Amino acid sequence: MWHSQILKLQRQGKAAVEATHLENLPNIVVDEEFEALGFDMPVTEHNLLEDHAHALDESESNWEEDGEDEGLLKTKEKMWKSLKREYKDFRTCRDQTDRTWINFKSQLDEITTACMDWVYVEKHQPESCRVPKELMDLNVVDIFGSSTEETPLFKGLIYDSSSIILSGLLPTTPLSHKSAITTRTVALYHSLFVRCPKLGIQPSVKALCDAQGSLFKPYLATQMSVAFDLYVAILNGVCFRVRKALGCDGPNWRMLNCCPPCQYRLEGEEKLPVCMLASFDGNDSLKQVEHTNDCKHTGAEVGTALVLGPSREQIDHYVGGGDNFLQPNEVDAWDEENWEFVNELDFEDGQLSPERHLWAEGQCEERWHNAKDKNTACSVGKFLECRWFAFLCQHMMLLIACDMIRSSEQSKYPLSVLNRYMAAELEERKVTKEGRPEGALAIAYDIHCKFSKTVKQSPLKNLVEWCNYLPVIGTMHGYAHERAFQLLFLMLYIVGTGIKDGEPCEHYFSVTNALAGITRHQSIFHCRQAIAEFIYHQDNFETYSKSSLFIYNNYKQALGLLKTRHAVAKAMKESRIEATETFYEWLVEEGEYLHSLSKAPPEETLEMEYFLKLEALYGCIKCLKEVRIAWQNYIPNGGHNQGAALEKKCWNEMENERKLIADCQVLEWKLKIKDQWMEDSEKWCVAKKMLEGLLVARMFEMTRLNVAGTGYKMRKHIANALKLQSKSIQSAIAAYNETAAALSPPRQCVSWEEVLEFSYLSEFDILWDTREDIRGQKWATQKNRMLMQEFFKLIRAKNELPRLHVEIRRLFTYMRDEEQRLNAAAKDLEETDPALALQVILHWQEHGCFNDIHCWRLLSIKRLDGFDFSNNKYFWPGIAVAKEAPLQGFDSPSFNNDPGSDVEEENDDNDIEGELDKALSVATDLD
């Protein structure tokens, strides 16, 4: 019936009415089955047959081929496209995703070119020279609404995806196209994501649906995900082309040039004791769950342990992360099992340096969870990647990172990133003919107590010595180490480290942890892609934009500390300290004292163990006697019979007694004890001596708890941190209390809360009974130790200014050179590749937009109270290393309304300046 009506309308030429009747046509369902083998179409893609004659039999058709008007032809085409089709796809999700990116990968080069051309057209509006060959109907999703649009397909392009991109759209499938998302929509989500990583694709798509008043459907999120991945791939392709045009496409170029204040070296600049400050650490907040099959029991019986089933993670042929991450095989090469050789450390008596003493006798490894191999060799079974190990400079620019796969923070991760960075640094310095760096490469790490020993034993030893590797610990993690280690590696006591805290990783991870919500269940590729995109934005927009502010704040803080030199000089006179060398002598004396307490003699340790065994034995005998009497005197009263329980308890106590007697006999044989000790023995001093070593070291670290200016919340925060990381102290306190209570008469016990309330060593009455009372030593008095802290802060502030002057000049030079170099490159490319030339300009604008604020902040340093105007020479650009001649055309940075002489120079006290200069020379010799 409907067929004859359309035929009649055709003869009358009423195509418009035909379209109206077309809306009432029933849906025709076409079932097409595809075989799984040999099917290479991507997800949601199906080639439509060009010959549609099977829909209506041509032999029985009454359609007239001649004389059809144009409106009727379009209506017939729309009628065919409106037919509902159902496809049966036998491919797995892994095959679909894999083939999608295989098909997109072959198109990326042409797609990237098309995107660059579209940006150029949108920017400059030139006359289009492309000729469309046909039109394609697409369902387009946009911020302001969705509609069906006709998209031209241009001649000369291999893939239809390129034509779609030239129209400002991003395809959601690589081959057969039915829908697309506008580029501005995906770009908006990308900008929102790098600013707020918690915003996932699904909630953003739901927000678009809510704004347009439509129902959310899951396939929309899938399409947005594909379009977003393609958009990121295009951005990476454009970035690679720009770097290649600038000659910056080396595999290590970004790592060696990401931070201008740290790495943009200049000719003739001042040599620093520490040429660069960096830090690395692991972070497990971005764990990735491994998708596995059902868990299985390890045994046949029910209730046995469960093990994870085989992994069903999908294989990603497209590797994300760019040059930010090391490959797993490069990391595994530095596993201790794969070392070609091990450098043996000589620990002969009389030849140990303080550092080697700590490696041989230090107790830090017992305190740190991630310093023990048994805690880092494996991870929670359900996590494939326990996330990443990051290597940052002091300004929080990411140098390199690696994934921690099925393990926690093992030594192979810092070794691999050190090898990558130092090997690249060595190669670059050979090219520039700079030679070996004169200053040290100071790297802060929370478990350097163990890792510094590992580095000396590893095949990396020669390379780290060439780079002048200097292990240090930051201020936050430093107070969790034993005091002897702090004296050697705490940044407060190391010349050239300045006033930095050495904890950039903690600040960095507090920002990147926002990614945890979306990366936990993503694939490896999407995890790396999300991290890489966030890192790129964080480094180039957030961190770089604040680099001048970082310098300004440190300069201001250093000048503020230098103002305290008069107070320090006055306090030195009151304490009758004639020379600054006294402070360094005190550090040596403190280190020697702590070293004498680092380990109790083996005989005393055995005596302590013997006493505790005796105490347990006496308690067991007493308990056995009570239980035996209760069992013998027990009379059942008709209720529940307790006789069997008492008998079992009696036998248990008898067995414990036999074991303790055997242990005591073994210790008596080792100690050559003839007569068993009694409860009134005086050997309890062994426990007291061990407690002294721990408490004295910890009290030096907890000085901050009760000093003036430390608020209640800060004191509680420090106390809780020390409590979590001080199990050794709590064990010593428990051993002391257990021994003191067993004496006759019992001695006074101490608690952890009482330890936290003690302001200093003078409040420890327990130390009166030890072998050596140190409270009378000058270096142990509270006043002198506070003065010593202020002195070293003053020295570090003095060290900070030369470093800041170098960073200021580097940043000025970088801004000048980068502007001229990129503008010159864009000018050269303007005639041959104008689209690439525009991308070079846009690349420069990422950093160039901050030049004005950088100049304003850096020149504002001259307004600071205490600024020395003899340092004006550092506020001019210099010549970068390997530059044959200075670039011309850059004027000196100017500052409007520069106060100039309005800022008075501070009169320096000649005496204290002389002492500080002398202290600096002594510190340099000690270093």
TrEMBL record:
Which domain of life does this protein belong to?
Eukaryota
Among the Pfam families in the record, one is KDZ
Could you tell me where the Acidic residues compositional bias lies?
901-914
Looking at the record, which segments are called Disordered? 888-915
Read off the InterPro entries from this record. Answer: KDZ
- What protein does this entry describe? CxC2-like cysteine cluster KDZ transposase-associated domain-containing protein
